[in-house]
Amino acid sequence: MLRTQAIEKRYGDLEALSGLTMDVPEGSVFALIGPNGAGKTTAIKVIMNLLRATSGHAEVLGVDSRKLGPEQLAKIGYVSENRRLPEWMKAGEFFAYCKGFYPGWRDEDLKGLARLYELPLERPLKAMSRGMRVKAAMAAAMSYRPRLLILDEPFGGLDVLVREQAIESILERVPDTTVFLASHDLAEIESFATHVGYLDQGRLHFVEEMTALSARFREVEVVLESEGALPAELPAEWLNAERTGLVARFVHARYDGERTEAEIRRALPGVREIAARGLSLRAIFVELAKSAKRGGER
Amino acid sequence: MRQVWHIFKKDVRRLRWEAAATLALLAWVAHLDRWRADSTPGAAEGWLNVLLPAAWAYLVGLLVLQDPLVGDREFWLTLPCRRRSLLGAKALFVLCFVHAPYFLAQAGILLARGFSPVAYFPQLMTKQLFLLVMLTLPSAAVAAMVENVVQFALAAVVLASAAVYAAGMPQGQLLTQTDAARLDLALLAVVVGAGAVVPLQYGRRRTAVSRGIGAAAAIAAVVAFAGMPKVTSAEVQCALTPLRLAAPASVTLLDKVEPLPSGFPRYILPLTTMNLALPMRISGLPPADLAISAQLSFDIRTENGERYSALSLPYPTQHAKTQLAATVWPVGPAPAYEIVMLDRTVYERLKGSPVIVEGSIMTELHQRGTTTRIQAEKAGDAPGLGKCTSAMGDGAFSQQGGLSVTCESPDEIPNPTYVTLMAPGVEPSRRTGLGAYGRVTSYPRSALLSPLNRRNAFIPLVAREDWTKNTGAFPQEDLSGAVVEIVPEPVAGRAILEYRWNGVLLSKFVVPAKP
């Protein structure tokens, strides 16, 4: 459905993307997460052929993204908060204009979405709030039932209720569509992403199914018999390790039950008790970001 | 085609008021043009000839920037829209709201002024091509390379300033029609650049490459216009209208120095400048009704390698501070002198020993066209000139009470075209040139948008008792039986004549002080 191969994008000395390789399976909801400036939007622009990669390439719907033509674009929905819409148009005119380009356009889908999103068709886009404009763009992008829906930070301007409404509408109205979503707001994607990729400073740190990701990240608390400092060398999977009195805490990036417990006992002498609990996607992201920052400081 | 129409409708909806404004301006200028008999437009028409092209350029810029080609945030970029369709829609808009209305307005003006638009269809299409090359294509190219209207306006101001600056540079001044090739070459650079940028941007959106091409074209145009040596421009012009010579023509220096003729121009020069007059003869040119010559280059060299090159401009007194200036005199029909202004210190150094003089002259031969005679204060058709009228009017320099002769044609009116007012018993007849009197205005006086070329001549009238043979006027009482004779002198060909005179002793040719 969507594949990237060693994409690099440089702006002079700045490396916005570095060897981005990933595979978005058909039917998945793939969330590309990362902090602001991680390179998510750049990646999407390369995928949509809005930017030229310095090297590497992307393949979208089986076609090299540099050769994306009307035939492929008719099957791709693209919504971005940064996109410049023809703001002089009224919402109704905007939809009518879009309709002229998509053979698969369905008026009944648009009507339903416009009703759901409470879009005023007679209001010019420039007179709408940012959130309302995003909803208009989403309504337009879903009215032709695209095979691939690419969303770049789509929910930034939406309040919680509207965001939930938008997510639900995607899942309900275009259930067969592959969704590729870039966001730094993890709360908005946790409920519906099936796959997640973590991008930071242009590098893709991992790509994983959500279930596997939730399973392997654990917050670990270890109670020790005596006070002292943590060893200088700890396994790389132990993120943000710290010790307070008898208790050591860290996030294990590859938690694997008994094997991990054995690893802890080897690394920390005098273990009295080990407790591990799951983390929300947001907590995983925060820990990864902290860890990256510490690594950078070191 | 469906997408072309879809995008076109969107652009019409968006730009309907702007397009309507340009149509209103066009209607206004067409109305003024239709009723104008004089070669100089009135203030409103003069300004409209500037304002309407600017409005069209703005409209074309806005049109292209409805779907900008620069940047990666534009909505249309991810629409399943064929680039050819987008370009087609923009072209259709320009056709419908710029070129077609302009064509119709021009055809209407021709019809209203007694010319058949069908007969002059090629001339109308030439005007369309001119509009495309000068305005719509460059405007579209600039808009295709910028992100927004502000950038477009800035780029337009920079390019317009460059054009004005180039036109103001000494080499860029179109002093004679024999130097017109530089403008043609500048336009060629513009059309090649713009013609490359527009399809490149619409086809592949290579902005950096396009901007490089655009900048190169702009620089090439400025260099061609302002930087091209006068000799090169003349060579191009000669290649376009060559003069067939059976044998090479020659320019010889006459040894015999005779007293200067009475009309010889004696410039008021600073004391630091010497005035020389080198008598010359041009031979070997085919017979022609008229020959007009212009100096292209003039060098003085010494035996020991010193070299002085002249600024060869028709008005050497403006360059009196320069070391050397030269021009032929008279400009037509056959130059008899090379008039030289030489720095006195240089002259003092060179006067004692022979020098080598090298130069080149461009000569333009004209053949007499069909003579037309019309009654004074009447109108008539003039072959090769269109329609001519003569009527009482005022002159360009506040002269009152004279005969104004105007010819207008969709074709270029030959320069020169002579107008002679003659009547039995009035000798000599009064002769002047069409276009010789251009009214001085405080507003732009160019009427480039007009489908008609108009030229005026003015002959002052005086009461018979005040008339003498040398007043340059015509006795008013004889006007009723007078005839206006109009003779065009179209160019037959041009040639560059080069010469080298060895052993010239400059001191022989010093212009004596006026007695």
Quick recap of the structure?
With 298 residues, chain A is α/β, with parallel strands linked by helices. Chain A has helices at residues 40-47, 70-73, 91-99, 107-116, 130-142, 160-173, 186-190, 210-216, 257-267, 281-297; strands at residues 2-11, 14-24, 29-33, 55-60, 63-64, 76-80, 148-152, 178-183, 195-200, 203-209, 218-224, 238-244, 247-252, 271-278.
Account of the protein in words:
The complex is a heterodimer of chains A (298) and B (515). Chain A is of the alpha/beta class and 298 residues long. Chain A has helices at residues 40-47, 70-73, 91-99, 107-116, 130-142, 160-173, 186-190, 210-216, 257-267, 281-297, and strands spanning 2-11, 14-24, 29-33, 55-60, 63-64, 76-80, 148-152, 178-183, 195-200, 203-209, 218-224, 238-244, 247-252, 271-278. In chain A, the strands form three sheets. Chain A has a six-stranded mixed β-sheet with strand order 6-7-8-3-9-10, sandwiched between helices. In chain A, a hairpin with a 2-residue loop joins strand 12 and strand 13. In chain A, helix 4 runs antiparallel to helix 5. The model of chain A has no long low-confidence stretch (mean pLDDT 90). Chain B has 515 residues and is of the alpha+beta class. Chain B is 37% helix and 23% strand. Chain B has helices at residues 2-34, 43-65, 83-112, 121-144, 149-168, 181-204, 207-227, 230-240, 344-350, and strands at residues 250-253, 273-283, 290-301, 307-309, 324-329, 337-343, 355-366, 372-375, 379-382, 386-393, 402-409, 417-422, 430-433, 453-462, 474-475, 483-488, 491-504. In chain B, a hairpin with an 8-residue loop joins strand 10 and strand 11. Chain B is globular, with a radius of gyration of 27 Å. At the A-B interface, helix 2, strand 6 and helix 3 of A face helix 1 of B.
